[in-house]
Each structure stands twice: as structure tokens, then as C-alpha cells.
């Protein structure tokens, strides 16, 4: 009778240990796996960062496109052309006031 009781207890403990291992395996992969919660959070953060960078690059692109539009032959802005020529050649007039702004 004692060996029968011990046998049933060992089977019960072994069965519970197997189930605990199975549940633990899945819980581990839910949180730490390649498609788990931690990986999802990292990908979400990276996605947000890249979207902000894309928005910044789109704004810079729009600014540069506007500048290019002002320099084209059909719509030439003489003030902008003069400014670009002075910047390129490094020349200023003695009456010019030069204000250097930090590059953003």
C-alpha cells in the first residue's frame, strides 16, 4: 500500500512538473521570445523613432524643394540668387550686416 501511494504521488509530482515546465516555456516566450512583449516594445520604440526621423527629413526636403523652386529660371528670386552667390564666393559688402546662425 505504501509503494502504491508513493507511486501515485510520484506520478502526480512528475505530471505537475511537466505541466509547470510547459507553462513556463510558453510564458518565457510570451515575454522574452523573438515575438514576445519585450521585442514588441523595442520594435515599437524603433518604429516611433524612425517615423520622427522621416517627418524631419520630409520637412527638410520640403524646405530644400522650395529653395530650388526659387532658383529655377522660370521663377528666379534675385535676392536668393545674390545670397547664394555671396555665400559661395565668401564675399560681403562693407555695409552688410552678417549674422551667423547655428546650423540646426
Topology (elements, then pairings):
Layout: H1 2-32, H2 37-71, H3 78-89
Report on this structure:
This protein is mainly α. The protein is 75% helix and 0% strand. The chain contains three helices and no strands. The longest helix has 35 residues. The model has no long low-confidence stretch (mean pLDDT 83).
Name a few traits of the molecule.
single chain; 104 residues; mainly alpha; 0% strand; rod-shaped
The percent range for strand residues is under 5%
C-alpha termini separation: 84 Å
Helix content: over 70%
Gross morphology is rod-shaped
Described by strand count, sense and barrel closure, the largest sheet is: none
**How many alpha or pi helices?**
3
Radius of gyration: 35 Å
What's the order of the H and E elements? HHH
Average of pLDDT: 83
How would you summarize what this structure contains?
The protein has 104 residues and is mainly α.
